[in-house]
Structures are given as C-alpha cells and as structure tokens.
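As a warm-up, study this chain.
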Amino acid sequence: MTSLKNSEFAEYLLMLLFIKISRRAGETYAMKKLKGVFKELEPKYDFLKYVELKDNVYTEHFEFINVNSELNSVEESEFYKAVKDIIERTIKNIGKFADYYFLKEVRDSAEDIINMDMQNEGINLSYMQFQYLLDRKQEKLYEDPILSHKKTSTILSHKKTSTIHEYQALTQKTLVTLIEILSNKKSLEIAIATLHNILRELGETHEVLRFIEVNESKYKEGIEAIKITDEINSVEPYQLGKAIREVVRRTHEESGGKIDIFIEDFKNRMGEEYLLDFDNIGVNLHFIQLKYNL
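Now compare it with the structure written out below.
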C-alpha cells in the first residue's frame, strides 16, 4: 500500500523529471521528450489519458502538467508498472542527457515518501541506476572499434573451444529453461502461455524479441512451441542481454518463488557454457538477485 494518491505521485514525479531534464537540455526539450514518452506508452496504459502535458512550459505555478483525479481509480499495481516504464522510457529517449547521474539525482531530490512508495511497488532507482551504468558500459564496448575488435577476437577464440553459442541457440536454451522452471509449479500449457505473455509485454520495449514466436497451440510439443528466426544472430549483444535480463526477471515474478532459489535453479539448468555466453552479452544473474535483496 502506497502513501500518496496516484494523481499526487504522478504530478510530483513528472515535475521532478521535467526539472532534471530541463537543467540539462532546456524546458522545451524536456516537455517534448516527456510528451513523446506518453505518446509511446498510452496504447499500453490507457489511463495515461488522465495526464495532460502542455507545450507552454512558461506558465506560472507549473500548470503545464495537469493530472485528473480519475487516475486515482487505477489499480496501484498497474499504475506503478506504468511509472517504471515512464522512467525507463524517459532515460532511453533523452539519450546522452541521461548521463551517469540522472537517476541518482532524481532519487536524491525526491522526497522520502516518493522513494518509499516506489520501493514498496518494486521500483528501485538505485538498482536502475546501476543497471544503466552496466548497459552504457556494454554499449560503449561495442561502439569502440578497438574494444569491439578485441571482443570479437575473444568471441571467436571461445567459439573454437565450443563455449560460445549463436544467439539463436542461447535464446532457445534460455526460454526452454524458463518454461521448465515454470512448469514445475504450473502445467506445461500454463507455463508456455505465461512465457508468451511475458515476451509480448516486453516486446514493446525490446525489439529483439520480435524474432521470437511462442505458439501456445503447440505446447504439448515443448521446445517446438518456440520459434526463433536466425535474424536474432545479428543483433547487438547488449540489446539481447537487456532483453534476456528482463525476461528472466519477469519469469521469476510470475513463478512466485524466492529469487535466490529461482536463480540457482536457473543457473544449474543452463549449465556453465551458456552462463559464459551470458557474461559476453551483459547478463549478470547476481545483479538480478541484488535487486530483490536490496
């Protein structure tokens, strides 16, 4: 249970994001980016229509952000899913202006009650900041031609010892393993349907997942229910890594078990060679555990 009404929280958070972006790139830019975030997310969260962002950011008393009280009728769990997506999409959309301190500044500037409400709903800004730093490090590795060459040489070297699999095989192994774990608590049919829903949900923010199709009607065939096109082999490693992290995280949430037991079971089923693959694309299972243990 959170302390603030949805409308109060939304108004505070949006103003805070607006101020932090404005100090980096100007008020007009800040409002343009926030409106862009809402335009992208409104098809997923219909209730965002209760928030109005106005272009005239120079009006007094911050009246360019209006939140209708109807937002308070939205279930908290659904509302805070939208909050998490808004924060993540904002970071993505402002690009270089997010820098290494953006989320830290948002967290430090927010009142305790705001951070507490987010924490209660599973939104940990400290973890998100840490994950952002890891993602940027991974991106820079593949943006730098010298480092990229070294990384490619390393991968080729690993391939000779059969410790690195193509992304198609790695993704297939990951999904099959997650289905196996889910099917221990649910039927195989429900496990496959659950994974299908997770991929569909995350596909809105991780384009790499469009190369994956889960056919629920073939659930009795197990692995045959999953089809992955070989186009996935050409994606950027850090993009696949980010997507896999989120799929693992969401599967754990759906499993309802303890994170430590879930990750340990997942690692044992994946095997050492595939875990080495995870290291190469930036999937650190320890950090997924850390998020839930903070």
